[in-house]
Amino acid sequence: MSDPGxxxxxxDLIDDLERIEDTxxxxxxxxxxxxxxxxxRRIDTPPxxxxxxxxxxxxxxTEATVGSLLLGxxxxxxxxxxxAGAFIATRPLAMIVTIALVIGLTVGIIYVADIQDVRVHExxxxxxxxxxxxxxxxSLITATLMMTVWGRVDWAEPWLAVSQIVVAMVPMSIGGALxxxxxxx
Length: 185
Fold this sequence. Notes:
This protein has two domains: 10-42; 52-181, no CATH class. The chain is elongated and about 85 Å long. By secondary structure, the protein is an all-alpha fold. Helix 5 crosses helix 6 (130-149). It has helices spanning 10-23, 27-42, 58-77, 79-89, 92-112, 130-149, 158-181, and strands spanning 52-53, 117-118. Strands 1-2 form a two-stranded parallel sheet.
């Protein structure tokens, strides 16, 4: 028998049925239990991945923020972020490509990569997914706050600061998207 304190599983059920089967002497009853065991073995257990994800709430926002931080902290302490930001600050096309990369990677991870079945639920203005806005917003706010608090950007030069934050957002948007959808909420 399964431990009463644990959540029962399909394996526990099969084990219990096999123990019952071993005690039966009546062939008809034994056959019925064997059929039940065979049926139980054919049942698909819910996968960790493949759940349907709808909506975007505080828990999702928190997961996205934690994911952003996990991949963002190395960007905050790495000088290369500021160098890359200075580079794209003087090249508008590079800035546009970087922003497109941030958005494209986030959309790709959440909606295209098929890691989870993510559904668009009540989009903003009828077409902008709340989850996309939430993940990108969490990445942007986290990058802006952390880079400002840690002195990694100088707001005396706002365009340079924005460029450096955009560079930090590349891995942060990846972390935010993964942090949001991998728990499956």
